[in-house]
Amino acid sequence: MKATAIAPSNLAFIKYWGRKNGDLRLPTNASISMNLSSLLTTTTVEFTSSLEQDEFELNETKYDYDSKKVQRVVKHLDRIRKLGQIKSRARVVSSNNFPSDTGLSSSSSGLAALTVAAATAANLNLSEKELSILARKGSGSACRSIPNGFVEWLDGDSDQTSFAVSLFPPSHWEIADVVAIISNEQKEVGSTEGQESANTSPFYETRLAKIDNKIKKAKSLLEKRQFSEFGEMVEAEALELHAIMITSSPSLIYWQPETVKMMKLVKKWRSEGLQVYFSLNTGQDMHIICEKKNIAQLTANLGSVPEVKEFIVNYPSNGTSITNEHLF
Ligand code: PMV
Fold first, then answer.
1. Which of 110, 123, 160, 164 could potentially form a cystine with 153 if both were Cys, beta carbons 3.0 to 4.6 Å apart?
2. CA separation, residue 297 to residues 116, 291, 308 (Å)
């Protein structure tokens, strides 16, 4: 059977950085995110006895079977084959409507779409919790792209207790995440490797000592829709994440000069009265959150910054869904 899924990327307001179990991708702490309406991966999977090995095509490029990208897909398909007791290989065709590997979490939408498409093609009838657990094993943050809207990845200690749940539907809060693309340069160190070295930073322990309170506070601000306090927290969290990255061994510097320029600009716009706050992940591109009423002003400002190649406006969205529009 053939199945196709569409999955959103997500922006973590409180980040997942570091693991208590690498094989199972169990994070050291809970995280909180929002699904993004305009950063989408569409993936079609078909298990077929006519293939001798799995095939993977992304954005019209067919990758070598031995490449890292394909091996990650094969490993994930193996998990699904095991659950569905399937022997046949699969053809997987995937398409991102945004740049990959520049810090926009294409692995979260990618592995969420692969999970749901492959599980459906394998005739597995999995619950949202089971899909989230399965997606987590492919890419941690992918588990948060399964449920709808504003999401918490629970701080579970085992395979079966580490999954994401919806905290609020997309309609809960009229905010936007405007993504500013400043370079298509691909990052040198992927988040999988970065996650492994997080605990080498001397500041990691301090982060962990405060993280439970941070999660509680973020949930409460989200529930009450207190934008400026929430934004302050989100921006401080992104800077804390990068303080850990920069001071890890080996040190990870994901920023480009343009990223720093943008951080300063966001602060300047704020000092001029525009309520906007930034967030960053493993890459140079920037997320800027604002209330819906301020989107026009923010996008006008971004339009006049020569370093911003493109910007993408995202609203809170549902999680991963099935579609009948197959890619092949
Ligand atoms: O799921 P991964 O291994 O790609 O890690 C995601 C890491 C961050 O984007 C920096 C943080 C997060 O929670 O999304």
1. 164
2. 37, 11, 15
